[in-house]
């Protein structure tokens, strides 16, 4: 695998030049679009890695997978899906257009911003600090080490995240969000600003590949049923409005974030992480998607 990975890395790194780093969150605009890393971990914990795999980036939307798991643990599936739907969307991740027209009014799924903000409101805790520590602690327990937080990205998004604010206040109005809207948004901006590198992200992915058991610590983190549920969302909604194309070309559950990370899961085999902050038009890492297409073909990863 090591040799093939090197070849595919150099072949696909050139695509990074064709993308653009996210700039709607001003702090993300500072990222270097030419960075590129890929890490694969098998279920014995063995790593194959190339490129900028030690550099930290913010999880952004990848965090939605983990908050969804916690919300289900906290509130149960019935409650969670009474507030948030299970259907993919052809609209961008930050779209609010369908919130009002859906009947009953609810965000389409937990992987788009509106859905994830609603999910954040379901995380239990005495206060926001405790809720945030639970999310962070959950990730730390999966990988067996500390997870850092990017204060600058958090503050930048908190200051400029008006579209997310609009979605959240609308959801408060129609009863999807309970509690203090600004607190819910604060928690959402915070969990989006947790940082990992490719090695850590591959460990997070490994837990999902391993049916809910951490590959690093051997501890069961979630039930097999919950991992199946989140992996289904990753297949249908994880790559935003390019999820259909990704399913056809790569064919594994995956979740991307505008920090440039993609967490991919090859069930029962590998946890995979790629990072390249230069994004395509949909908001997925441009080099990341390309290398995953090649890796899937080369190693026969498609689950379909
Ligand atoms: N924090 C980002 C936002 O809310 C996450 C979006 C993303 O990664 N697609 O816009």
How would you summarize what this structure contains?
By secondary structure, this protein is α+β, with helices and mostly antiparallel strands. It is 47% helix and 11% strand.
The H-and-E topology, N to C, reads as HEEEHHHHHEHHHEHHHEEEH
Order of the strands making up the biggest sheet? 2-1-8-7-6
* Percentage beta strand: 5-15%
Secondary structure: number of strands: 8
CATH homologous superfamily grouping of the largest domain: DD-peptidase/beta-lactamase superfamily
**What ligands can be seen in this structure?**
glutamine
Distance between the termini: 22 Å
Rg from alpha-carbon coordinates: 18 Å
Mean residue pLDDT: 96
Estimate the helix proportion, in percent: 40-55%
Domain unit count: 2
Number of helices: 13
Tell me, briefly, the overall form: globular
Query: Structural class of the secondary structure composition?
Result: alpha+beta
Largest sheet geometry: 5 strands, antiparallel
CATH class of the largest domain: Alpha Beta
Multimeric organization? single chain
| CATH architecture tag of the largest domain | 3-Layer(aba) Sandwich
Q: Poorly predicted ranges (pLDDT <50, ≥5 residues)? A: none
The CATH topology of the largest domain is Beta-lactamase
Topology readout:
Blueprint: H1 2-13, E1 37-42, E2 47-51, E3 57-58, H2 63-75, H3 77-83, H4 97-101, H5 113-120, H6 128-143, E4 148-149, H7 151-160, H8 162-173, H9 181-192, E5 194-196, H10 198-209, H11 224-237, H12 243-249, E6 254-256, E7 261-266, E8 270-275, H13 286-299
Antiparallel strand pairs: 1-2, 1-8, 3-5, 4-5, 6-7, 7-8
Bound molecules: glutamine.
């Amino acid at each position: 695998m090591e040799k093939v990975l090197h070849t595919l890395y150099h072949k696909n790194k050139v695509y990074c030049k064709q993308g653009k780093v996210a700039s709607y969150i001003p702090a993300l605009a500072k990222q270097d679009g030419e960075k590129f890393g890929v890490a694969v971990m098998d279920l014995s914990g063995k790593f194959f890695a190339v490129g900028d795999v030690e550099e930290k980036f913010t999880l952004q939307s990848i965090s939605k997978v983990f908050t969804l798991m916690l919300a289900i643990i906290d509130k149960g599936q019935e409650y969670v899906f009474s507030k948030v739907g299970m259907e993919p969307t052809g609209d961008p991740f930050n779209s609010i257009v369908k919130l009002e027209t859906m009947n009953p009014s609810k965000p389409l799924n937990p992987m788009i911003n509106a859905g994830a903000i609603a999910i954040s409101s379901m995380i239990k805790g005495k206060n926001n600090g405790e809720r945030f520590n639970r999310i962070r602690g959950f990730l730390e327990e999966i990988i067996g080490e500390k997870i850092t937080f990017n204060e600058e990205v958090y503050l930048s998004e908190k200051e400029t995240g008006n579209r997310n604010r609009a979605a959240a206040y609308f959801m408060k109005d129609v009863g999807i969000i309970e509690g203090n809207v600004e607190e819910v948004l604060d928690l959402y901006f915070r969990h989006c600003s947790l940082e990992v590198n490719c090695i850590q992200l591959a460990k997070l992915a490994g837990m999902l590949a391993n049916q809910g058991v951490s590959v690093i610590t051997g501890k069961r983190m979630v039930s097999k049923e919950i991992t199946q549920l989140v992996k289904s969302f990753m297949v249908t909604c994880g790559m935003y409005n390019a999820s259909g194309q990704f399913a056809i070309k790569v064919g594994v559950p995956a979740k991307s974030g505008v920090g440039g990370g993609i967490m991919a899961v090859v069930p029962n085999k590998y946890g995979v992480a790629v990072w390249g902050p230069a994004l395509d038009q949909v908001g997925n890492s441009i080099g990341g998607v390309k290398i995953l297409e090649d890796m899937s073909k080369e190693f026969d990863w498609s689950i379909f």
